[in-house]
Design a protein that fits this description.
- Helices cover 17% and strands 29% of the residues.
- It is α+β, with helices and mostly antiparallel strands.
- It has 2 domains: 45 residues; 163 residues, Glucose Permease (Domain IIA).
- Strands 11-7-8-9-13-5-4-14 form an 8-stranded antiparallel beta sheet.
- Helix 1 runs antiparallel to helix 2.
- The radius of gyration is 19 Å and the shape is globular.
- InterPro entries: PS_Dcarbxylase, PSD-A.
Length: 249
């Protein structure tokens, strides 16, 4: 049940359930289903079966499972499912750093830790808010469609920046980046919206990446090569810094 409280002392009820399918899937699945039915009617089974498989793949891609988001003022949770492919100190994007004259929060120009999360076509592509707060900026930038795994994709690919400000003034910026196959970034939020941590904010169709910019003085609590889950994995704790090592095995 949405909104149910679960904790580390056993409170609540947890069970496996089929994930919901996001409405964005409807038109793609409907087209594939119609083609499947047409080819089946024409007895073109060698084409009808792959089209039927395509319907299943589309529904799987747009799956929208429920997530249990850790609650805590210091937690920054993952905005995307996927693989941590880059952790670097970089200046924030200009669109999130400059003063736009609105007196709203911005990230500043000092280098901060950026965590890049690569989403393959097998990952859930619904993106979620890393913190609770007010959406201050949503900035779409057209661009190229390079491999989202490349570092330069952060500056050259089609992308959308989102900035969220907490009540205490702490701001977190993150960027949805289109990849080789992705051709559309779909936002669910706009400036002024109030969000809870883990709330759905958008999706990127068919393989992509999300970059998260941590506040100054905060280091990643996840490791390079780690597989993470949107709305559940704690990326960082605000104000916590220092190296963490892992062993691939």
């Amino acid at each position: 049940m949405a909104g149910e409280i679960l904790d580390n002392q056993g409170r609540g009820e947890a069970s496996w359930r089929w994930p919901a399918i996001h409405p964005e899937a409807r038109k793609f699945a409907a087209i594939a289903a119609v083609l499947c039915a047409l080819f089946a009617f024409l007895a073109w089974e060698t084409v009808a079966w792959p089209m039927g498989l395509l319907v299943f793949c589309i529904c799987a891609f747009f799956r929208d499972p429920q997530r249990v988001t850790p609650q805590g003022d210091r937690y920054i949770v993952a905005p995307a499912d996927g693989l941590v492919t880059l952790i670097q100190k970089v200046p924030p994007p200009r669109e999130l750093a400059i003063d736009d004259g609105s007196a709203a929060a911005r990230l500043g120009e000092a280098p901060v830790t950026r965590i890049s999360i690569f989403m393959s076509v097998f990952d859930v592509h619904i993106n979620r808010a890393p913190i609770g707060g007010t959406v201050r900026r949503v900035i779409y930038i057209p661009g190229r469609f390079l491999n989202a795994d490349l570092d330069k994709a952060s500056e050259e690919n089609e992308r959308q920046h989102i900035l969220i400000e907490r009540g205490d003034g702490t701001a977190i910026g993150f960027t949805q980046i289109a990849g080789l196959v992705a051709r559309r970034i779909v936002p669910f939020v706009k400036p002024g919206d109030m969000l809870a941590a883990g709330q759905r904010v958008g999706l990127i169709r068919f393989g992509s990446r999300v970059d998260v910019y941590l506040p100054e003085g905060t280091d990643s609590r996840v490791l390079l090569g780690q597989k993470i889950v949107a709305g559940e994995t704690i990326l960082a704790e605000i104000g916590q810094a220092g190296p963490i090592e892992g062993i691939m095995q």
